[in-house]
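Sequence only, no structure available. Ideas?
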Amino acid sequence: MLFGNILRICDVKKLLCFLPFFLAACASAPQQSSDNLISPEFKAPAPGALIVLLPPQAEGAELKEGVDSLLVQLHRQLKAAGYKVAGIARSNYETIWAQEVDAVGGVYDTVTGKRRHDAYFQARAHLVQRVGDDTQAALVIEPRLLLRKATLSGATVQWDGQQRRVLMSNSAGREYRSDGTTVAMSVNLNVFAASGEPVAMTYGGASLVYSVNIQAAKHEVRSDIFANDKELAQGVALSLSPLFKPSAQ
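Reply:
I predicted one. Tokens follow.
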């Protein structure tokens, strides 16, 4: 079941009714994501080293609005941790990526349309190598905003090191709870050595993207996901903390 079910306490003359819902709002972050992968050989670069950020990507149209803010937060927090930070212009990135995709004969099967995973990872590694050679970067980071599964428990939801509480509208003061799963937005960082070798993949829970309108019994995309950068900043801090702790938080 993708979404948990929420129990509404109705008048005794009415049937109990159930409706799926999403959670939002804020609370403290309990721990890092269990899906983080860090190479045993990884060591954080020395302060003052250059870290290059590839253009951020977003999964889903509702997340695209946040890619510029994601880049700003990464610059801000990495600089606060003592690093030099540079970005690659999206137009330059797309040119290099097209060249590398062509060099491996394409990353999608021309018959089935499925991704050729070996070709894709080879093209990406070559792109990172070129960026590393051109910039002398210590690390290259590919940032993304993703929709991730979150666990509902009572009045809270947890995912990727984040925990938040219910945000609903038109609830008439009634209490609601749920157990199950929903989806939420996380920051994902794919981290590479300048050689093109992947050295880490981390996640940081940021925001729940849906709220529930109880009266209308429907889910609504939050209009304020990126209204301020507090939640996104928390997601960036969580995604950076396994790599550059404790100074990046």
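The mean pLDDT is 82.
Hope that gets you unstuck.
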